[in-house]
Amino acid sequence: MPLPSSAIVLCTLNAKYIHASLGLRYLLANMGSLTGQTVLREFTVRRKPQELLDELLALSPRIVGFGVYIWNVTETTALVRLLKAARPDVTVVLGGPEVSHEWAQQDIFQLADHLITGWGDISFPKLCEALLHGPQPLMKVIVGEQPELDQIALPYAHYTDADLAHRLLYVEASRGCPFKCEFCLSSLDKTAKAFPLDAFLAALDGLYQRGARNFKFVDRTFNLKIDTSVRILQFFLDRMADNLFVHFEVIPDHLPDRLKALIAQFPPGVLQLEVGVQTLNVEVQQAISRRQDNDQTLANLGWLVEHSQAHLHTDLIFGLPGESLDSIGAGFDRLHAVRPHEIQLGLLKRLRGTPIARHTLTHGMVYQARPPYTVLQTALLDAPTVQRLTRAARYWDLVANSGRFKRTLPALLQGGSAFAAFLAWSDWLWESTDKTQGLTPESLVDALFDYLTTQRALPVDGVRAMLLSDYVASGARARPACLRTVLPRPQAPVPRESARLLAQRQERHA
Fold first, then answer.
1. φ/ψ bin of 475: left (φ > 0), alpha (ψ from -120 to 50), beta (otherwise)
2. In this predicted structure, what is the pLDDT of residue 487?
3. Cis (ω within 30 of 0) for the bond into 252?
4. Is the pLDDT of residue 505 over 80?
5. In what helix (H) or strand (E) does residue 296 lie, and over which residues does it extend?
6. Which domains does the chain have, with CATH numbers?
7. Measured between alpha carbons, how far is residue 69 from residues 61, 122, 368 in Å?
8. Helix or strand or coil: residue 471?
9. In 43-178, where does DSSP find H-type helix?
10. Which of 29, 80, 193, 211 is most exposed, with minimal Cβ within 10 Å?
């Protein structure tokens, strides 16, 4: 009897609908003779597990492969538990970074039938072939094979027209990373390897010809090999369109003139560069095996701000071993001084398998036991200070990274230290509101007005003028209390943002 078309289901729970799983599409592209019997189902973590179970059972699967990540392991565990209770005969196969290390004690591993650690592109199809046609596999845990990249079928044809219209498209020109930053899973890689460039660019062109205009590269080190970077940037320059958006993650201290010349040619709104600065403390960098020329990093960021239209999304990590509050503040101030468009402030996470664990005892590191495993305290940052930094990171997103307070933010940060100034505002806002969620743009306008006029003693009329300018520019339509005497009721609806700009904003804060 022939197998049903849904004998194999590839499944994952994305953080948001706008995300699309690149990993599952790689698996689907490499299923070989089993492709016609394999379907892909993506859900979101917000949906109820019982609803997801009903949809999976309707496919009458024999094998379900789950992509497991730090953001979905809790919800995926609940779904797998329901699936095995309802259909114990269904074979559950796990894969993904969250279950590739320290898996033995995980509940989801205990529930599953098989686990593939590491790469699954080749190993998952082989396992499915054995499960369906024999001989039956003997091992529960299978170490994923790492073939040469030219042996892996590219996945991009498996992005649907709906994906192209409504989702961010994840692509990769290379895998791996040559650097050994201990907080990152890529530190376990031996090096970075590139996919055959001609075949990759041909696949990108296929997506472009189908209407794709939104590309997010997941390469850890896009600008590692400049010849490759130049060809990819030129590919997009040759296909420039009003709604094109391209995102790259770049090494901050490696920006030769050839790359600068191409970056400078991109018009506003097209190119976004994610720059992982993480820390500017040299001793901390050495402790966590991070190689970075800080002066060159800041010089390159300054050049990008002054001479390109690229949107700069920079990252700092709070809570690294050996970093104090003063050190964090000093690093923030140096980065802020070069005026990147965004500074993403994140707490350190102890990802499973990462070498950062070796500092746990020596630096008093205490982490959450459950995902996302964020640091709770260190030898130099007690728990209240970590909570304080967590609130500040949230408020920074709302006030600075949102782009809603471009005129008011400099007034808020004025003084000897931008970090100290913002931390003082963060402390005041927490004491005043007792919340980090549910703060509307209107409530933030009123809070900023109160703080700047009372705590900073700035002129009332000047503060009101700044906030009015920012509020009108943001396109908001309600009327904050402090602006009711100067802001008329809106007479017409504010034009909606374009799909591209909305996608960019959602992705930046995902």
1. left
2. 73
3. no
4. no
5. helix 294-307
6. 8-149 (3.40.50.280), 159-381 (3.80.30.20), 389-510 (no CATH)
7. 22, 20, 16
8. helix
9. 49-57, 73-86, 107-111, 123-133, 161-166
10. 211
CA atoms of 199 and 157, how far apart (whole Å):
13
Tell me which DSSP letter residue 453 carries: I
Task: Return the structure tokens found at 385.
Answer: 């200070």
Task: Say how far apart CA 175 and CA 119 lie, in whole Å.
Answer: 11
Q: How big is the chain by its Cα radius of gyration, in Å?
A: 24
Residues 280 and 485: their CA atoms lie apart, in Å, by 45
Going from the C-alpha of 335 to that of each of 348, 399, 408, 429, 494, the distances in angstroms are 18, 17, 19, 24, 35
Query: What are the φ/ψ torsions at residue 213 (nearest 5 degrees)?
Result: -135, 5
pLDDT in the model for residue 488 = 65
> Quick one: average pLDDT of 98-106?
96
* Residues 153-176, mean pLDDT to the nearest whole number: 96
pLDDT class of 118 with cuts at 50, 70, 90: very high
DSSP string, 2-67: PPPTTSEEEEEEESSTT---HHHHHHHHT-GGGGGGEEEEEEETTS-HHHHHHHHHTT--SEEEEE
Residue listed under structure tokens 């002066």? 295
**Tokens (6 digits) for 483:** 């602006």
Tokens of 295: 């002066």
Amino acid code (one letter) for 149: L
Measured distance CA(44)–CA(242) in Å, rounded? 30
Tally Cβ neighbours within 10 Å of residue 300: 22
Q: Which residue bears the tokens 């980065």?
A: 335
Percent of the chain with pLDDT over 70: 94
Give the CA count within 13 Å in the CB-facing half-sphere of 342: 26
Phi, psi of 20 (to 5 degrees): -130, 135
Question: For residues 252 and 276, is the Cβ–Cβ distance under 8 A?
Answer: yes
Q: What angle do CA 407, 412, 416 make, to 5 degrees?
A: 120
Q: Which helix (H) or strand (E) holds 401?
A: none
Q: How many angstroms separate the CA atoms of 238 and 204, rounded?
A: 13
Question: What are the pLDDT digits (tens) for 270-281?
Answer: 999 999 999 999
CA distance 308 to 220: 22
With 0.85 as the threshold, say if the pTM is over it: yes
Residue 23 CA to residue 107 CA, distance in Å, equals 23
Residue 47 has a CB neighbour count (10 Å cut-off) of: 13
Rounded CA-CA distance 335/293 in Å is 13
Neighbouring-strand partners of residue 405: none
Q: How confident is the model at residue 2 (pLDDT cuts 50, 70, 90)?
A: very low
User: What token pair was written down for 312?
Assistant: 């700069």
Q: Which of 46, 37, 88, 89 is CA-nearest to residue 71? A: 46
What would the two tokens of residue 193 be? 């390897």
Where do we find the tokens 């709302």?
A: 398
User: How many residues are present in the chain?
Assistant: 510
- The token pair at 320 is 């690294």
Phi and psi at residue 383, in whole multiples of 5°?
Answer: -60, -45
pLDDT of residue 504: 53
